[in-house]
Amino acid sequence: MNIVRKDIDQNNATLTVCIEKSDYAEKVEKTLRDYRKKANIPGFRPGNVPVGLIKKMYGKAVIAEEINKIVSDELYGYIRENKINMLGEPMPNETDQQPIDFDANDNFEFIFDLGIAPEFEVELTKKDKIKNYTIAVSDEMIDNQIKSHTSRYGKYVQEETVEEKDMVKGEILELADGKVNEKGLKVADAVLTPSYIKDEAQKAAFVGAVKGAVITFNPQTAFENEAEISSLLKISKDEAKNITADFQITIEGITRYYEADVNQELFDKVYGEGVVTTEEEFRAKIKDGILESLSGDSEYKFGVDAREMLLAKFNDLQFPDAFLKRWVLATNTNLTAQTLEEDFPKMIADLKWQLIKDKLTKANEVKVEIEDVNAYARKIARAQFAQYGMVGMGDDILDNYAKDMLKKEETVKGIVERVAENKVFEIVKNSVKLDTKEVTIEEFNKMFEN
């Protein structure tokens, strides 16, 4: 057996695998003997089927199977031993490959096309410059976060006089000619909020009313659509379309929501008991949290700019385009040639970026440890809780949430890839010259507008 490499150009080569009868004959004979022992053919006792009959029935299939295994093992073994940086997978040659005839031949040649990655090294110096944006935390951002906390930790209080944003609870009765329609709609424990009433006159009838007051209103005039009417009167939307009568509500309860005061009680609820003791510390703690959140956005932007710089730096890299297109079409049956042509530039950019990352990863011996994965999972957990205003979560809660996340293999794989990429970006950041600039959140967001 022999393998011959032929380089077509820097990105394309062929490997010819030459198989002789001596490479497979012994294994084929052994397999056929095993078949003979197990064969159950009418007219012959088990183990006594003539060898010639076994060969006639199974010989060609066994030869083909054994040769395919030898070719595959030797092909990939050669690629590994010679450290060929292959793109995609070997593809059967379409021009020089001769037909394979297992009946007429004992020796065979299998020719494979290879796509080879370009040779290059990634060297970063302070001559390479990348923008690095930091996002300023404004007083308005801190105030908005405080507003979020005071809203979240507020309380409901029963009142005696209605204000616009209060929830008014009571019994609603349908009227006819100014009197209660005994056959009309009746809704117990109905709830409405004056601020949702579109008609100002109808709204004014509620604002200032006291507990126990009876107010007449018209749902069709008061509300925007059938959905609001159906919800209030507990009827279907189709029925709500036909509501024209006036109704009355007897106010049985008035509930008002009060935001929490900015005091020690709020500090303890947000960050834990005694962690923060003054409003100044509270604002500082909030600022730190916002900075941590925004740092992720800054890191993302740096990653985008770093990728763009590195792709431009290696813009002249050559790829085996024809081979890659052929391989992609062969391995993606739902992809059309037209779609491939449209998407191919992006595919090449992604492939180039992957090769650049691989170079930096190997050169700097980047490794992702289990501690890195756990830390990143905790970071995700903390960010998700923060989206709902839940900051200062205990380590045990974050650990349990992260542990649940890492039960999914797909999630673990995604985190490992992200951690590895972040380590590459950190290497880039420490190697190049950073053009650091502080921007407002508005200026930062505009960078992502198309």
Q: What structural class is derived from the secondary structure elements? A: alpha+beta
Integer tally of domains: 3
Mean pLDDT, all residues: 91
- Total strands: 12
Strand content: 15-25%
Question: What's the overall geometry?
Answer: elongated
Number of helical stretches of at least 4 residues: 15
For the report, how would you describe the main beta sheet?
6 strands, antiparallel
Q: Measured on Cα atoms, how large is the radius of gyration?
A: 37 Å
What CATH calls the topology of the largest domain is Trigger factor, domain 2
**Helix percentage:** 40-55%
Instruction: Spell out the helices and strands N to C.
Output: EEHHEEEHEEEEHEHHHEHHHHHHHEH
Can you characterise this structure?
The protein is of the alpha+beta class. It has three domains: 2-116, Alpha-Beta Plaits, CATH 3.30.70; 129-145 and 267-446, Trigger factor, domain 2 (Orthogonal Bundle); 155-258, Chitinase A, domain 3, CATH 3.10.50.40. Helix content is 50%, strand content 19%. It has helices at 21-38, 51-81, 139-152, 200-206, 219-222, 226-233, 237-241, 264-271, 279-313, 321-331, 337-363, 370-387, 395-405, 409-431, 441-446, and strands at residues 2-9, 12-19, 86-92, 108-116, 129-135, 155-158, 167-176, 179-180, 186-192, 214-217, 247-258, 433-439. The two termini are 58 Å apart.
